[in-house]
Design brief:
CATH architecture of the largest domain: 3-Layer(aba) Sandwich
Mean pLDDT: 95
Number of strands: 9
Structural class: alpha/beta
Number of helices: 12
């Protein structure tokens, strides 16, 4: 039985009540929120038509009985289905930017987003430069890149047409159709044959990289996402091998490729001992994202 509101209920009280409910349900997080309290904030903010960040400035505001009940209905669905909250709300936030979200693609999340937001990638993005988001999924990284560097051109490709339909909605939502080109195909097959006029200054990629053992024990929240976007083969490196093999063909002379590999650091080092990768510092540490310069791939 959900607690009855005690009018006047504040936004903060609603968040706390939902947080307690979620925390008692043995849920797993990592799809845009790190814990029960973060998801409770997200749920409540949706009902009062504010972003989660904006809601923090309105914690003392009153929340209506109808909004309270709708928020608890979302919490109940989250608990009963074990689906990521982003799928239930149809929206996710990454670096403060909203994205349409559906089960046709994975929930927007990537440590690469941090590096885009803090300007770490700008040395590889000259004015009028070209970037590629390989395995774009929902399009969130391509969009963040375009928003942060409005003078560059961005290509974004994915093997999944359903995922690209989500990406197209997000590109349109942020009015970036003239800056971002969406392409369908299996990795490099999505692109024209490389020539001196269509090389990229920066390639970013958050590919499927979860190894087979890890895939078998993922919580239900992750199994709600398309396996195609997560599974990286026995050692997690299946797609990364194909990506690295042909990246030199598509990089400009001073270009670089940025790869997210999550928890697969040891498997990457074992698969590519000869590559002098530059490990990029993100909030999760220094073993999740790496950059390889074109000259070190040739």
């Amino acid at each position: 039985m959900d607690p009855e509101p005690q009018p006047p209920l504040t936004v903060n009280q609603c968040i706390e009540l939902i947080s307690q409910k979620l925390a008692a349900a043995n849920l797993h997080y990592g799809h845009g929120a790190i814990d029960a309290h973060s998801e409770a904030l997200w749920i409540t903010s949706k009902q009062i038509h504010l972003s989660p960040a904006e809601t923090l400035d309105h914690l003392g505001d009153s929340i209506s009985d109808e909004q309270y009940k709708k928020a608890f209905a979302v919490a109940n669905e989250r608990i009963s289905t074990r689906k990521p909250l982003a799928y239930i709300l149809g929206e996710a936030w990454l670096m403060g930017v909203p994205f349409f979200c559906s089960e046709q693609s994975i929930v927007p999340r990537s440590w690469i987003a941090e590096l885009i937001a803090d300007g770490s990638l700008e040395p590889w993005l000259p004015a009028d430069g070209k970037a590629l988001d390989l395995c774009t999924g929902n399009g969130s990284l391509a969009i963040l890149l375009a928003l942060s560097c409005p003078d560059i051109r961005v290509s974004a490709c994915d093997i999944s047409m359903p995922a690209l339909s989500v990406a197209a909605r997000n590109v349109d939502r942020h009015s970036l159709n003239s800056q971002i080109e969406l392409l369908n195909g299996d990795l490099w097959d999505a692109l024209p044959e490389p020539n001196e006029d269509n090389l990229f200054d920066l390639i970013i990629c958050n590919p499927p990289y979860v190894n087979a053992n890890s895939m078998s024990v993922l919580p239900a929240e992750y199994h709600a996402e398309p396996a195609l976007a997560l599974a990286g083969g026995e050692d997690g490196m299946d797609l990364i091998r194909r990506i690295i093999a042909h990246a030199p063909d598509y990089l400009s002379e001073r270009g670089a490729i940025l790869l997210e590999i999550g928890n697969e650091y040891e498997n990457f080092k074992k698969a590519f001992p000869q590559i002098p990768a530059i490990w990029m510092e993100v909030s999760a540490g220094e073993e999740q994202v790496l950059l390889i310069q074109a000259e070190d791939l040739r």
